[in-house]
Design brief:
By secondary structure, the chain is an alpha/beta fold. It binds phosphoenolpyruvate and magnesium ion (MG).
């Protein structure tokens, strides 16, 4: 039966594929395809895992103390029975044979099928056996991870051949995917994803955009009502998910898929065109990256530098272990060298809120118990509370400056004292490097404007910092008091809110008055509906996901910044700035085509 699910569109395009349902806790289970010749060995790994767990359970039962409650041996028997049930291991084997999933993926796929059957049972006792089944599967996954020939347990990315003949594309469906897990999908088999929770600028959504794969978040019940292997269309532009579409609908979306590929190819021809407005204003289009390897896509997209390197992604998927100075230095240097003399803005670690570390050092307990982590010990607050960690990062960034143009960006500054402590830490890091005889260059240090307080005290901050970058994702969150990751209030997360626009306009104006450079690196920079408005505010530096650069460049090439600046107040003072801006966009779209302007 065909039906639709609605959510929030977070990453453009259309994906069509078979549903792979994964429980959030198992998203980091390895997902990769094996080839025909590996089917037997994969089944053997599954069998070995099963035998190991059977041995563990038998030993547990044997070693139970004499006074153990009578339920315990009975429970272990239930686990043993589930382990040997053909509905678990037999059906898992079938996923391996039919679909060429690796054993862990096959096992979690089968668990999702069975868990749903348990959920639908009338009998309370039987329904509750789902938890037992989950425990058995967790044990089995652990046993396989320990197995001699087990693949990397943390990689959601494929390590085996991914395109064997006849394989359908796959889309991932989960209740939630942590940003750290999303990162693993960079090289994964999935062509799109859907989550039940999340907002448009949650970090999961941001990483999806950086991967440039169609995605819908906040789809509420999706992971409950979509079934394993259903055909699914993800419309990442509209936020619609169509499950088991009719052949006509499928054909229509395949057509749209081809159209959007053609449009991308057309836009990519702008790659080497400088971003200059119709009235000759040069605009800098920079890239947001998460890992040094992303520099390649930044270059590919024609970025003229990196405006935001979210360094916290180097800290993820490491069991809470912090990367050392040398390791960080190598990562920063790799990005700097890849950018070939273009500026690379490295943001100090922005951990916390929806990007927690697996273990947050001495502050771990405080963070875990924070009632409202978005307002807690995150970003620069966390860095300043971990001085050794912070100086280590600062030294690594400074050392990378010997290899190209590096700028340092500080997230979530709200107080002048934070600014001073940060600059002191930079000075100390420089001193340590000088004493150790390690080369570095003088680097510019900038502040992010992400908290209304920072926008309001910007003239004072500008006396301390060399540049500013406006993080609109958080600025909206903190101005409107809307958790950016919470789909329940996503309808109130409004970049068009007059208060937000005024803070952005004010910050750009203050920075320009102070003669300091200013950019926007939040999602608004990559959203073409804001391009003219931001130009009107005087913004000349935009930082976004590489995949968004061409579309923004096209807007810049067609905009007349002076004409727009003359109409800024009209939008800012409107009760509905979005409608006012749209109206102006329509009215001003009547401009001469680019070719004739250039010729003139
Ligand atoms: C922002 O808040 O706009 C920003 C760019 O930082 P992040 O999205 O990583 O919080
Ligand atoms: Mg932010």
């Amino acid at each position: 039966m065909s039906f639709q699910v609605f959510g929030l569109p977070v990453s453009r395009g259309v994906a069509i594929g078979r549903a792979v349902l994964v429980a959030s806790s198992r998203v980091d289970v390895a997902h990769y395809f094996i080839d025909e010749t590996q089917v037997d060995s994969e089944i053997a790994r599954l069998r070995a895992g099963r035998d190991a767990v059977a041995g563990e359970l038998a030993a547990l039962k044997r070693d139970l103390p004499g006074d153990a409650p009578a339920e315990l041996p009975a429970l272990l028997d239930v686990h043993l029975m589930l382990l040997h049930d053909d509905a678990l291991t037999g059906a898992t084997k079938q996923w391996i044979i039919d679909r060429h999933y690796n054993a862990e993926w096959a096992l979690s796929a089968q668990l999702e099928v069975l868990a749903r059957q348990f959920d639908e049972m009338e009998d309370d006792y039987l329904r509750e056996r789902k938890a037992d089944l989950e425990q058995v599967v967790e044990r089995l996954l652990r046993a396989m991870a320990r197995g001699a020939s087990a693949p990397s347990f943390t990689a959601a990315s494929p390590t085996g051949p991914r395109d064997f003949a006849g394989e359908d594309p796959l889309v991932l469906i989960a209740n939630d995917i942590a940003p750290a897990d999303m990162l693993q999908f960079k090289r994964s088999v999935f062509t799109g994803f859907i989550t039940d929770v999340g907002g448009k600028t949650s970090h999961t959504a941001i990483v999806a955009r950086s991967l440039d794969i169609p995605a819908v978040v906040g789809a509420r019940e999706a992971s409950r009502i979509i079934r394993q292997d259903d055909w699914v269309i993800i419309d990442g532009d509209a936020g619609i998910v169509i499950v088991n579409p009719s052949p006509i609908v499928l054909e229509e979306y395949r057509f749209r898929q081809r159209q959007s590929e053609l449009e991308r190819a057309r836009l990519s021809r702008l790659r080497h065109t400088p971003a200059v407005t119709l009235d000759g204003e040069r605009v800098e289009l920079l890239a947001n990256i998460e890992l040094p390897g992303d520099a390649a896509s930044a270059l590919q997209a024609g970025a003229v530098g990196v405006g935001l390197f979210r360094s916290e992604f180097l800290f993820m998927n490491r069991g809470g272990e912090i990367p050392g100075e040398d390791e960080q230095f190598e990562a920063y240097r790799a990005a700097v060298e890849a950018m070939n003399g273009m500026p690379v803005t490295i943001r100090t670690v922005d951990i916390g809120a929806d990007k927690p570390l697996e273990r947050m050092s001495i502050n771990e307990l405080r963070h875990e118990h924070a009632l409202n982590p978005a307002m807690g010990l995150r970003a620069i607050r966390w860095s300043l509370s971990e001085p050794a960690m912070f100086r280590q990062q600062l030294r690594a960034v400074l050392r990378a400056s010997a290899y190209g143009k590096v700028r340092l960006l500080v997230p979530m500054v709200a107080q002048l004292a934070e600014a001073r402590y940060t600059l002191e830490a930079v000075a100390r890091a420089k001193q340590q490097l000088a004493e150790a005889g390690k080369p570095f260059n003088d680097i510019e240090v900038g502040a992010m404007v992400e908290v209304p307080a920072a926008a309001l005290i910007l003239p004072s901050l500008l006396r301390l910092f060399d540049f500013v970058s406006i993080g609109t994702n958080d600025l909206i969150q903190y101005t409107l008091a809307i958790d950016r990751a919470d789909e329940a209030v996503a309808y109130l997360y409004d970049p068009w809110h007059p208060a937000v626009l005024q803070l952005i306009a004010q910050s750009i104006a203050r920075a320009r008055e102070a003669g300091k450079s200013v950019s926007v690196c939040g999602e608004m920079a990559g959203d073409p509906s804001f391009t003219e408005l931001l130009l009107a505010m005087g913004l000349r530096s935009f930082s976004m996901h590489p995949s968004q650069i061409s579309a923004i460049k096209q807007r810049v090439l067609r905009a007349d910044a002076r004409r727009w600046a003359a109409r800024l107040e009209q939008v800012l003072s409107a009760e509905d700035p979005q409608a006012a801006c749209l109206e102006l966009q329509r009215a001003m779209a009547n401009v001469p085509p680019i070719a004739s302007t250039v010729a003139a």
